[in-house]
Design a protein that fits this description.
alpha+beta, four-stranded mixed beta sheet, 4 helices, about 40% helix, about 20% strand
Length: about 140
């Protein structure tokens, strides 16, 4: 016997698929040239808001980067990126809801600027603070 019907089940899925990644060089260059910055140590968040095209759904495009300067080994850089993506994946729903309400697109690139390997709680605290600041900035004005 089926206890629940998938048709009526509305659970927000914590996925970060290919369509949510910021990949195109032109978009990334435009983001760094004309975007704004929020600092939430050890992260720096670059963001740019733009109108969504009719062919696109309003969404948040996301990217993450770690400097080779302080982390010479790719293993360390990949771990930091993995932790950052994991924290963002759980916290993305509020930003997506705001952008859907405004019918806009948000390009977001997060750069890790610390010099030591972070732990998951450190990443959660810093990114939560940064994403809260971001959501206050992009929230529609009444």
């Amino acid at each position: 016997m089926l206890l629940y019907s998938p048709k009526f089940l509305t659970i927000a899925r914590n996925t970060l698929g290919k369509s949510a990644r910021l990949k195109h060089r032109k978009q990334i260059d435009a983001l760094f040239k004309t975007g704004k910055t929020i600092v939430s140590f050890p992260y720096r968040l670059y963001f740019r808001e733009s109108a969504a095209m009719e062919s696109q759904s309003p969404q948040v495009l996301f990217g993450v980067g770690v400097s080779k300067r302080y982390f010479k080994k790719a293993i360390d850089r990949n771990r930091i990126k993995r932790l950052t993506r994991e924290v963002y994946r759980h916290r993305q729903h509020s930003l997506n809801a705001i952008m859907a309400a405004k019918n806009n697109r948000l390009d977001l690139f997060i750069i890790f600027t610390g010099k030591e390997l972070p732990t998951l709680p450190d990443c959660e605290h810093a990114l939560e603070t940064g994403l809260d600041k971001l959501s206050r900035i992009v929230r529609p004005k009444p």
